[in-house]
Amino acid sequence: MSGLLAFRHVKNKGSQRLSLSWFSSSGFSRFLHSLPFATVNAEEVSGSKPAEVLNLVQGKWTRSSSWNTIPDPLNGESFIKVSEVDEKGIQPFVESLSKCPKHGLHNPFKAPERYLMLGDVSMKAAHKLSLPEVSDFFAKLIQRVSPKSYEQAFAEVYVTQKFLENFCGDQVRFLARSFAVPGNHLGQQSHGFRWPYGPVAIITPFNFPLEIPVLQLMGALYMGNKPLLKVDSKVCIVMEQMLRLLHDCGLPVEDVDFINSDGKTMNKILLEGKPRMTLFTGSSRVAEKLAGDLKGRIKLEDAGFDWKILGPDVQEEDYVAWVCDQDAYACSGQKCSAQSLLFMHENWSKSSLVNKLTSLAARRKLDDLTVGPVLTFTTDAMLDHMNKLLQIKGSKLLFGGEPLQNHSIPAVYGAIKPTAVFVPLEEILKENNYELVTKEIFGPFQIVTEYKHDQLPLVLDTLERMHAHLTAAVVSNDLLFQQEIIGNSVNGTTYAGLRARTTGAPQNHWFGPAGDPRGAGIGTPEAIKLVWSCHREIIYDVVPTKSPPPCRRSLATTARSLVIPPHTPPPEARNRCGIILLVVKSFSFFSLNVFVGSNYKSFVGYRTLPDQDLRLSIVLNPEPIFLKLKPEA
Ligand SMILES: NC(=O)c1ccc[n+]([C@@H]2O[C@H](COP(=O)([O-])OP(=O)(O)OC[C@H]3O[C@@H](n4cnc5c(N)ncnc54)[C@H](O)[C@@H]3O)[C@@H](O)[C@H]2O)c1
């Protein structure tokens, strides 16, 4: 997700923060012990001093009987112990979900002060994350568990901070803004409200340990839900620490449950606890399983096989090459938005783009984590995939294709050089090859292809056959070209123009797939409202239909005093609308009869509060008008 924007922010600040070694020697480490919320020191976590991650349920931090040890992705040492709940320990989490009613912890009619409380929590949390010692703590903790360059890790913290800033003060209640439409008759009006689901679940992957869980968690809370959060165990330490920060900022401890478990146990909780909505971010394989198990009560942010098309207008080669390198290889390609397939117009193939890409990729090194461990594919799995691709007619290795050297990354993880394989466009489209070429490899790996000017329909056909529609980029300032591609594709987050990219979506962009009714979004007010609330319509219809109900109590005195003698209004006001002011002393609901002479003229009902002024519009007549107030039951 995030990336380029915050990267520039760091650069603009003149930061020299490029390597872990710089970090260790920097003065930031002295702050770590003074962070009141933190229970770990990111720099000190190691095999000899492992950190512990707990669960949070019904307002209490708890340990389970079993511990999962997480290997340090850089050296294999068991450096984090995660207290994991197994299938026998799920009851407190199921109970906690069932304690939250369907109408949520708050809604526009219930506990509205919570909207303000959450605005306040967001403000304090945003401020905390803006403190250098706190952003540094989280950036570094992210680096320990999901190794990426400091810039990339910092980008996550920065985007999270900006997101929280966006929902300070009244902005949370504005998310629940309603609207009204006039009805068919007096007293009728329909109102549309954003309604919570109540108990909900959030499941997030390993690659953005802070940004994805915080943005989805806060969105769920803002709209009035009670979330159960599960983050991939490999990286859950980051969110555990963030929850402690949120509590420090005033978030009630009972508002969020946090569970560490394997996928199977979480699946069981979802089936037994029956959250009204589950937001799943992760692979398409698990997404499809859960969509079936949960009978559709789910929204998905699943796999990305993201493409970029370089249009006919070749310009700013250096910049375009730099963005291609960032899109494909930053975070070692472990972004759901990473560039997986690059279509080059023949004009670009004649340029120096591939040479530039080759040298940019070659600059990446393990030292500063600009390339690093791949957490869900082994080295062999990625190289096997590459070898299968290289058997396709006309395909060739452009660069990379080798394991990283001189490292201690454990064998359960992958470590390869940034890699690009060229596959001819006609071959991609062949039945036997299509699935192989468009398989998402969550690592520093991309496919490159070329198209001639008259082959654009083949490019569009390739896009049409894909099943994942997350991010895309149309790199061209040719408006007709842009229009052709955008009009014939569906990706949810699509960048268009010379500076187009596939990654880097900050908090001010909608980020999510399109073309799937289950598709979720993250980041913006629209994404929060779509994912975390449903529409509820309340139709007010308060006016009785025919005659006034029987009088329960005489109001003779009041009625008499309301007789309006003839000719009271000035002559010019006759036969027009006039205003009569009534002061209602004791009734909260009453009906009003209007008599013109001896004829019953009309009947209306009003709800008001005692001592409230009531203005009535009636037709003034030369004849006496009698107004009678009748109380309702
Ligand atoms: N669309 C997006 O916004 C987005 C963002 C980040 C990552 N991703 C995708 O995520 C994938 C990489 O992440 P991953 O390998 O961690 O994904 P994954 O699907 O293996 O795991 C994601 C989460 O689901 C949990 N899980 C696994 N099986 C489960 C089950 N049966 N029931 C409940 N929970 C279960 C895991 O423990 C983890 O917390 C890639 O495909 C990537 O494209 C998508």
Automatic annotation (TrEMBL):
It comes from Sesamum alatum. Coiled coil: none annotated. This is Aldehyde dehydrogenase. It comes from the Eukaryota. PANTHER family: ALPHA-AMINOADIPIC SEMIALDEHYDE DEHYDROGENASE, DELTA-1-PYRROLINE-5-CARBOXYLATE DEHYDROGENASE 12A1, MITOCHONDRIAL. Transmembrane segments: none annotated. GO terms for molecular function: aldehyde dehydrogenase (NAD+) activity; L-glutamate gamma-semialdehyde dehydrogenase activity. Residues 72-493 form the Aldehyde dehydrogenase domain. One of its GO terms (cellular component) is mitochondrion. Pfam families: Aldedh. The keyword Transit peptide does not apply. Keywords: NAD, Oxidoreductase. GO terms for biological process: L-proline catabolic process to L-glutamate. The keyword RNA-binding does not apply. Belongs to the aldehyde dehydrogenase family.
